Structures are given as C-alpha cells and as structure tokens.
Amino acid sequence: MSNQRIPLLGRLAVHNQMITMDQLAEATAEQGRRNDGSNIGTILVEKGFLTDVQLAKLVKGQKQMIARQRASQAAQAAAPNLEAEPSKRKVAIDPRSEPMTRPAAAPPVAAPAPTSKPKAKAPAAAPRPAAAPPPPPASRPAEHKEVHAGELEGATPDSEVAVLNGAAAVPTDADREAFHAMLREAVERGSSDIHVHAGSPLMFRVNGQLTPGREGIVGAAESELFAMSSLTAEQRSIFEQRGEIDLCYTLDGVGRFRTNVYRQQRGVDAVFRYIPPEAPSLDELGLPLALAKFVNFHQGMVLVTGPAGCGKSSTLAALVDLINEERHEHILTIEDPIEYLHPSKRCLVNQRSVHSHTESFARALRAALREDPDVIVVGELRDLETISLALSAAETGHLVLATLHTNNAIRTLNRIIGAFPADQQGQVRMMISESLRVVISQRLIPRADGQGRVAAIENLVVNRAVGNLIRENKTFQIHSILQTGGSQGMILLDHSIKALLDAGTISREEALRNCEDAKALGA
Fold this sequence. Notes:
The strands form two sheets. A seven-stranded mixed β-sheet has the order 9-8-10-11-7-12-13, sandwiched between helices. It has a six-stranded antiparallel β-sheet with strand order 3-2-1-6-5-4. The protein has 17 helices and 13 strands. α1 (8-15) packs across α4 (52-87) and α10 (361-368) runs parallel beside α11. It has three domains: 1-79 and 112-123 and 157-167, no CATH class; 173-275, Beta-Lactamase; 289-521, Rossmann fold. Helices cover 37% and strands 17% of the residues. The N and C termini lie far apart (69 Å).
C-alpha cells in the first residue's frame, strides 16, 4: 500500500500505536469495498479497532496538522516576494572585498511540515532563523519507543502528534464527586476491589466474587475520567509516559485504595483495592490469637505467604500493629505503594513507598541498614536482590517481616532457595535455616452462611529439626513435621481446612476446592 493511498488519520493512528498496520489495511480494504464515501475513522470504530474517544483525538490532531501545513505553505509562498526586491539589484562584487551588508531577514515563519516539499532558497536571500526544535513528546510511554508507523514512508514525526499520544483527560469537580460516590457505594457493599474497565460493566469484588456494581456499560470516556480522578497532575504525567501507574488514593472518612491505572486496547482502566483507615487486629481478621507470639522475635525473618487476594497485607499489618503497641523500637516499612498507615504508638514508625520515596525495594533495604531500624517490614519479596538483602538484614540482628506469593510453607522455602543460582543454594539453605523463624501461609475461603470469608492457616515454625532438613535439602520431609508439630504452634493447611469444615464454617465443596489432599478431609 503506497503512502499516498493511506489516509492521514490512519497514518496517525498507526504512528500512535492505537492500531496495527494489519488493522489499517483491513479497514482500508473495507473502505474500498463499500465505495459509499464512508470515512476510515468510522470503519475503524465499527470494527472495534478504535474507541470514540481515540477517534476524537485523532480528528483533532488531523485538523491541527492540516492547519499547520496550510500556514506553512502560505508563509513559503510569501517568502519569495519578500526577498524579490533585494535580488533585483545588480551589483558587481569583488570577491576579494569585504562582504556587503545583507538586507534584513524576513520575519521567522513556522517550520514547514515534514510532508511538504521544501522549496529552494533564492541565492540573495538572508538566512532564515532556525525554528526552535519541537519539544520531546512527553506523552509517549517510554516502553513504546519502537513505533510501528516507521513502516510507513513519510510517517508523521512525534512532534506533530504528541497531542494524540494518550493525553489524559482532566476530570472536573463533578467527575471527582461521581468517582467518590462510586467508591463509597463499593465500600458500603463490602467490596474488597473495584474494577473500572472501558466497554465492560462496573464490577465490585464482594466475598471473593465479582458482581455488577450497576447496570449498563462503562464507556471509554467515563472509564478514563474515573481513573484520572485518582491521579494528581504529576501522576498523570507519569501515567502518560509509562502507560500504567501504582499508587494509593485516600478518601477522607472512607479509607485508602491501592490503585493501578493502566492503558489497554479499549481505553484507560483502573482497579482499586480497599484498605481500611486503621490496621485490623488478629481478632477482627478471624485469625488465631496464637499468631501473636510470632512477633516476640527480636531478630530473624517472619514470612506471610499465600496466593493473590488472600489477605496477606492485612495479616502483616495486624502483626506490625501488635509490635507498634507492645514495644519501644523503630519500625521501618518499605511498600509499593504504602497501604495501611501505622501512626507511631509506642514504636517510632517510618513508612517508605517505592518510586515515591526510594527507587526500589533493594535500594531501600540497603539504606535501611544505616537507618537504625529494629523491625523492617518489606511489602513483597519480588526478586533475587530483595530476597538476598532481606536475608542479610535478618542475619544482622533485625526482625524482618515480609510477604511472598506462594501456596504453602514448603513451596515458600523452595521458592526462596530456587531464586538463587545453583552454586549459591547451599549457602542460602544455611542462611534460611538460621534466620527464618516462621512461615504463615493462608487462604481465604467463603463462609457457608455467605457472610464473608474465613482464613485457613498453615504455620511452619523453623525449629532445629526443620532447620536440619532445610540445610540437607530435604524440604519434602517437612510435611510430616507439620502434621505432628501442633504443640509448637504448627498446623498443616489441610488440617486447618478440616477444622473449619467440621465446625460448619465452610462448605464441603469449598473445602475440597482449597485443600491440598482431599484424603485429609476424611469421609
């Protein structure tokens, strides 16, 4: 397909990665088949390749480009007339003489558009002042530098279409009030998560299940306004560059919302996780009060693990709050982003957010060793460097509390060890056997009466026997110790599920869905 046959709007859409070349070719072919005057933008929307909001941005950008080209062409047409008068003079110039004074240059005009053919300068014309270079397209996501529109000859450069590259909508006060009303309604209905997706219904996650928040579909414009209502001007700028952002949004009198805003094919979406204004207690979470003894350690590592959405953050916050109420120490938290706020009670509490207050978990952990903490709380052990630094901090006399995405205690050990290269795993097993104190693994299971969810817990206390098995790379034998270590606070996940089943708290269907071994539930 030659560049001359490609509509300008289509070229802009491809250049901004709103559509692919294949989608543009399909829409152009459809336009040729119809032969009824349908414009390319209408066809792209009909086929679902563009949203109405994206099309409006493209049309606006197209108009701006055409106006700029016309102004440039008019300026070029006027330029020869301005230079003609001086060029009529026939003056003999001795090449050895000093250069004669040139007439004043014409006023600077707009730089010609890249697609127009440049005209040759008149020989006697004064040099035209160079136009200022266009500003860098701040709205381009950094990860989208490879532009597919480079396949098109004469593709419009970034400076011409910066306005189209995901420039976020700016919500009004009325938009924010509607957004706040939606958050309040979700919390009143007991939602843990709110999903705002362009082209889909508004969804609330209640007791682990997604339910419609209201009737009707959320349009692309409404979805973007909801998402942008949670961002400051600075955060909108970051979002426009990266295409996604994590943050915590606070609504006074309601609570905090861990927020992820991201751009997708249909528009701008957002997911909000509700965080109560105060850290919960173990009793409020329905957790066994025996967990409280696991915060009596003054050094070593305590891990809270489980699959996504199982309440790890809430359990960790409850343990931190216990330390805050009972000790006189310095607690330092490193999170992405900060979720529960911990005011200093008996302890001095400092909370740091990755990207806002520090570059990464690893960098914050390195700095933490010089900030005199007694307790270090790591929101998530994400990578090898963070795990390594957390183990080192636990070895050097700090109590480290952290979360990890694993399904049970034994898989947690294998996950940590397996994160290291093979030639380091022997040393890591030694470090874990000496510094790890307890692994708390949990799952949230819907209650049989439909009134929320209840936590099933697996506790692994690292005693001498468990430590020996870790050092000897025999973690598979720890299962038998979990079965018989009840006197030391250990419990197997399946035994916890069976206890909830026997008490009638959960149904047998849910018990079977969440247990590791159905035989543990009995007949």
